[in-house]
Amino acid sequence: MKENILIIGGGIAGLEAASQLLKLGYNPIIVEKSDHLGGHVAEWNRLFPDMTPAEDAVARLVSGTTEANIFLNTEIAFVNRLKDSYNIMLTNGISIITRILLFATGFSLFDASKKEEYGYGVYNQVMTNADLERWFNTGYDERIPEEGPEAMGFVHCVGSRDEKARNSQCSKVCCITAVKQAIEMKQKFPQAMVYCFYMDLRMFGKKYEDFYISAQRDYGVRFIRGRVSEVSENIDGRLIVKAEDTLSGKPVKVTLDLLVLMSGIVCNPGICKTAGQLSLPIDSDGFLKSRDNIMDITDSSKEGIFYAGACTGPKTVPETLAEARSAALGIHNYILNGMK
């Protein structure tokens, strides 16, 4: 009989891990709280730096899990630790006995309304990176007119690298996401002026620097180094954005039709209850704490519990997929070595 491996989360980490575990001869069981697979990636339009359609990437991952047991609209109701296994009760009433749990619970986006100075939820023309991706997918958002904005801006690091927001960490993908979205808006509306307000540009990934240079050279996106200090609305309903250009040492004031806030990555709060039932430690950044951050990032401090993807911190898509494969192999070796 094939060994059950319970995977909590049906995003790209959970899907890739399930695919690898199927190839290794196990019975992966995916528990996903939403009504779809693919997590945040399924809600994105295109992926940097190659502009790959997100739906193609998700479809490829889903195709590798056709033999897995998948429960959508389902969460972990309760976990009971047995002698050498776990009894998992799901919210759909099903009980599963397994010796292995894989957390692939992903992340949440910072609630941009908490940064009141940016006006999200106050001014109609302020939206988040997720809102803009939804518009790319659906073509509908009343904040974006059919003819497009004359001028728009992106604010980096919203809820990231911010002690007041209780998140001092870099969200890793916000800079490159802003560059991607800025390029996409220029492709749709070439006449629009597009600004990016940033603290530091962190273009660490393969081809990311080329992507950034292309945004400036080929699309005319203007990058201003400095935090936005205030967003207000004029009598015409347009946004007045104030910042300081720290490179020139001069204040900047621009009038925009649309402002996009790059909400940072924070730990998925939904995992806290299950983590608490298993006494799993939470790291200082609010994410699940790995055994260590160098050699054993996919291992927890508890027997039979593994991690993959953004449940332990911000990750790119390639990093998430690599961790999922590593976790699957780690589970395989753990079982082969007699669960030691």
Question: How do you describe this structure in short?
Answer:
With 340 residues, the protein is α/β, with parallel strands linked by helices. It has helices at 12-23, 54-63, 129-138, 174-188, 208-217, 271-277, 317-336, and strands at residues 4-8, 27-31, 46-47, 52-53, 69-71, 76-81, 86-90, 95-98, 100-103, 107-109, 126-128, 151-158, 193-198, 222-225, 228-233, 239-245, 250-256, 258-263, 265-267, 305-307. Strand 7 and strand 8 form a beta hairpin.
Keywords:
340 residues, alpha/beta, 20 strands, 25% helix, elongated, metal-binding, CoB--CoM heterodisulfide reductase iron-sulfur subunit A family protein, oxidoreductase activity
Rg (C-alpha, Å): 22 Å
Poorly predicted tracts of residues:
none
* Biggest β-sheet strands, sense, barrel: 5 strands, parallel
Strand content: 25-35%
**Percent range of helical residues:** 10-25%
What can you see in these coordinates?
- This protein has helices spanning 12-23, 54-63, 129-138, 174-188, 208-217, 271-277, 317-336, and strands at residues 4-8, 27-31, 46-47, 52-53, 69-71, 76-81, 86-90, 95-98, 100-103, 107-109, 126-128, 151-158, 193-198, 222-225, 228-233, 239-245, 250-256, 258-263, 265-267, 305-307.
- The protein has 340 residues and is of the alpha/beta class.
- The protein has a 5-stranded parallel beta sheet, with helices on one face.
- Helix 1 packs parallel to helix 7 (317-336) and helix 4 packs parallel to helix 5.
- The chain starts with a strand and ends with a helix.
- The model has no long low-confidence stretch (mean pLDDT 94).
